[in-house]
Each structure stands twice: as structure tokens, then as C-alpha cells.
Amino acid sequence: MARALSIIALVALWAIAAALVDSRMLPSPLMVAGLVATETLSGELPYEMGCTLARVIVSFSVALVLGSLAGYAMGHWKAVDRYGDPWLVALINLPALVTILFAYIWIGLNETAAILAVALNKLPNVVVMMREGTRALDPGLDEMARAFRLTGFSRVRHVVMPQLAPYFAAASRSGLAIAWKIVLVAELIGRPNGVGFVLGTAFSLFDLTKILSYALTFVALMLTIENLLVQPLERRAQRWRRRA
After folding, report:
1. Which of 18, 54, 122, 225 has its CA 20 to 30 A from that of 113?
2. Among positive and negative, which fits the CA dihedral 51, 65, 108, 92?
3. Half-sphere exposure (CA, 13 Å, Cβ side) for 227?
């Protein structure tokens, strides 16, 4: 209820501000909603959002899988951590724009370059979270698993994974928020479709109505995914700790 009231208040303030200034500088909510409806019926908005969402999912999944494996290895073996830490620090401090530009120059203006650039930008954040989660594993539980002679697979499934689940969920939640923003930059620079491409075209035409319609629609989509998928998974991952 509080969220709904907050959104209503925000839209009301937006409408009041739009009524006080030039509509070209700040389109009203009705103008933006009308364009969203028009673009949706024409099929352009679903297509562009679908392109962006596909890039987000693929790059996010690649970063999550590779980052989880690398983070576990760095947290479990000190030698791997010492060797990989300089690479990790370098990737964390490398600007997303630089990574995207290098990927497009070295690989070309294609999907592989865009997805790789986004995945590389998200990868270090996942590694850091999963490394800390691995370092926080309870050695007592591992000793218990060995005492009961659990197989390696059973130990990973029943002992390691439940303890890493909250860190995995946190990495997923933050990663999704970061990934789609980087995808928009990659599309703006070097892709012929997607929300980022549309925003760049609208910016060149000073079309604020289109910028707001696509930006707000995609934000609404990501908020829906956050509330219906990511947050429930995070609560589920934390459930065993609350019971304990």
C-alpha cells in the first residue's frame, strides 16, 4: 500500500511540474502513457525491449556462472586468491565504457562483443560476493559432512550450496540492476536495436517523450522482475538461516 501511494504521489508531482513548464521540456504522464500505448500496439516497444532483455539475461547469466565458480575457487584456495586478486582489482576499477569500446574494437560491432563487455563488467562483483561467502563457510558443517562420509556431490549440494545461497541471491539482485544499465550503454554505442539504441536516436531528435516512455517502461519491467522473481528467491535463500 505504501509503495502504491508513493508511486501515485510521484506521478502527481510529475503532472504538476509538467503543467508548469513547456511540454517539450517535460512531457506529461498522459503524453508518455499515450506514446507507450502507441508503440506497444505497433510492436516496436515490445521488440526493442525484448532485444535488450535478451542481452541482459545472457550477459547476466554468463557473469553469474563464471563469477560464482571463480569466487568459490578464490575463497577456497589461497593460492588462487593471491594469483587472481590483481585481475579482480583491475576489472573492478575498469570503467564499463572502456570495456565496451575495447570489445567493439577487438571483436566487432556484434552481439558477442556487447554480451562479453557487459559480462566482464558484472563479473568482478559476483566474484567478490561469492569469495566472501566461501570464506564464511562453517568449517564445523564440513567436518560433520566428512564424519557422515557424504560424497563430494552430496557435500556440495547439502552443505556448501545452502550456505552460499544468500550470497548468490545478493549477487543476482545487484547484478541484474547493474547489467541492464550497462547493456543500454552498449546498445547506445554499437547496436542497431534495443532500448539503448532507441534512447540514443530519441536524444539526437530531442524527443523527451520517447526517452521517458522507453526508459520508464523498461524500469517498470525490471522492477516487476525484481519483485516477482529476485526478491522471493532471496527470501527463500535466507529461510534456512532464520530457522537456524
Report:
1. 225
2. positive
3. 7
Q: pTM (2 decimals)?
A: 0.84
Domain of 220, CATH number, reads: 1.10.3720.10
21 located within any domain: no
State the total domains in the chain.
1
Q: How confident is the model at residue 151 (pLDDT cuts 50, 70, 90)?
A: low
Residue with cell 554480451: 115
Does residue 215 form part of some domain? yes
> Which residue range is the domain that position 90 belongs to?
30-243
Structure confidence by residue, pLDDT tens digits, 87-110: 988 888 888 889 999 999 999 889
Does a structural domain hold residue 176? yes
CB atoms < 10 A from the CB of 1, how many? 5
Does 102 fall in a domain? yes
Residue 158 binned pLDDT confidence (cut-offs 50, 70, 90): low
Average pLDDT over residues 115-132: 91
Among 101, 226, 241, 242, smallest CA distance to 172 is for 226
- Cα torsion at 217, 223, 228, 231 (round to 10°)? 170
- Angle of helix 44-76 versus helix 208-225 axis, rounded to 10: 50
